[in-house]
Amino acid sequence: MLLRRALALALVLAQGAVHADEPRTADSFKDWRVQHEAAVAAFEALLVAQGLAEVAPLHQLLRSASDWQRCGAEPYAVPPEAQWPAALSTLRLLRTLRSEAVLGAFEIHSAHRDAALNACAGGAPRSTHLVAFAVDLVPLDDAQAGARLCRYWARHGQGWQMGLSRYPSGRIHIDTWRYRTWGADHSARSSFCAAESEREAAPDAAR
């Protein structure tokens, strides 16, 4: 029990560090938007028309990879129009996760990125941040969000074609490209959901 509490605290602290270091704010987005108004306005209008504009702040939803500064890339990116259906699908999933209390408050730190930034950031050649639409988010002050997401993925993820992973930083990757979960070796064996499943299956006395 003490070990579980220590791990939960460490995850919350890691999430807080990720949140505190994020320079891409709503104010900086306003400046960037001026130079990209047509594309941003079209994407925003789509979200409004689909009733998805309130799922996440637009400046978070359009954040590119976290390594944008090191890679000399844009801090924000509007996904290509061909990927807008995938973006709507992922946002509908996020809306459902919120409405069913699987996710509480969260912050998105990375979504669409172009090929050059994806390569520089060390993304997979067919990363869903590049070819579909994925988000890397941090649940805020909620150490149990990962466990709830794993349970939801196991029960309902196939219907959503939900992809789910968690990185060492505490960020959680969600997409609706293909049903799968993975970890450090890119297989389900190393997924944090495997560890969550083993923990839930353990006798109470061993927890």
Give short descriptive properties of this protein:
207 residues; alpha+beta; Muramoyl-pentapeptide Carboxypeptidase, domain 2; five-stranded mixed β-sheet; 9 helices; 5 strands; globular; disordered N terminus
What's the order of the H and E elements?
A: HHHHHEHHEHEEEH
Strand content: 5-15%
Helix content: 40-55%
Instruction: Show unreliable segments.
Output: 1-19
Q: Going across the major beta sheet, what is the strand order?
A: 1-2-4-3-5
**Rg over CA atoms:** 17 Å
Structural class: alpha+beta
Span between termini: 5 Å
Shape: globular
Architecture per CATH nomenclature, i.e. the level-2 architecture: 2-Layer Sandwich
Q: How would you explain this protein's 3D organization?
A:
- With 207 residues, this protein is an alpha+beta fold.
- The protein has one domain (2-206): Muramoyl-pentapeptide Carboxypeptidase, domain 2, CATH 3.30.1380.
- The chain contains 9 helices and 5 strands; from the N terminus they run H-H-H-H-H-E-H-H-E-H-E-E-E-H.
- It has helices at residues 2-20, 26-34, 37-49, 58-61, 84-99, 115-120, 128-131, 145-160, 192-201, and strands at residues 106-110, 134-139, 163-166, 172-175, 180-182.
- Strands 1-2-4-3-5 form a 5-stranded mixed sheet.
